């Protein structure tokens, strides 16, 4: 009986060893796979849930001149255009209108994001200042239809607004459109991803 029991001991030991090794290997593999899968899922969910706070910026962002310089440049350009047109035609008209559109668009593109309001209200204020100055310095520059030579400064300013209304509408509309687009693009972009339920 002792021999019989002894003969079966090696097989039992081998079976136990094999079972233990297989169980350990299977457990380690399962644990590694589960850990890798959990880590990858957690990383993907965290990465997708992290908001991208970087604003979409135009290529020239970081090199914008101060708003005061932009306004001063716009005033100088519009006044220069007025002087040139008076010398060429004797009154304000097409050249001033085109220059107003140009400076309105340029100012809306160049001002820093914090000064977008200034660019939005700039076109009518520019035209108002120009018409007031011309009404005082050179009244004949505003040669609107049915405007008497003895018209007062307010009458000449109103007549100038009416005469250049088309250019003002285009300039102000483009400026407001660009201001709205830049304001929207300067906001942080938040990507709110909802993680999938397991």
Question: What attributes characterize this protein structure?
Answer:
disordered N terminus, mainly alpha
Report a brief summary of the structure.
This protein has helices spanning 2-49, 67-89, 94-110, 116-137, 153-163, 165-185. It is mainly α.
Globally, the shape reads elongated
Report how far apart the termini are.
58 Å
Tally of distinct domains? 2
Determine the number of helices (DSSP H or I, runs of at least 4 residues). Answer: 6
Low-pLDDT residue intervals, each spanning 5 or more residues: 1-32, 34-53, 189-194
Largest β-sheet summary: none
Number of strands: 0
> In which range does the helix fraction lie?
over 70%
Averaged pLDDT, please? 74
Order of helices and strands: HHHHHH
Name the structural class: mainly alpha
Q: Over all CA atoms, what is the radius of gyration?
A: 38 Å
How much of the sequence lies in strands comes to under 5%
What does this structure look like?
The protein is mainly alpha-helical and 198 residues long. The protein folds into two domains: 1-50; 67-185, no CATH class. Helices cover 72% and strands 0% of the residues. The protein contains six helices and no strands. The protein has helices spanning 2-49, 67-89, 94-110, 116-137, 153-163, 165-185. It is elongated. It starts with a helix and ends in a 13-residue tail after the last helix. Residues 1-32, 34-53 and 189-194 have low confidence and may be disordered.
